Amino acid sequence: MKIPSELKYTKDHEWIRVEGNIATIGITDFAQGELGDIVYVEVETLDETLEKEAVFGTVEAVKTVSDLFLPLSGEVIDFNTLLEQEPEKVNSDPYGEGWMVKIRLSDASEIAELLSAEAYKELIGA
Question: In the Cβ-directed half-sphere of 108, how many Cα atoms lie within 13 Å?
Answer without folding.
Answer: 5
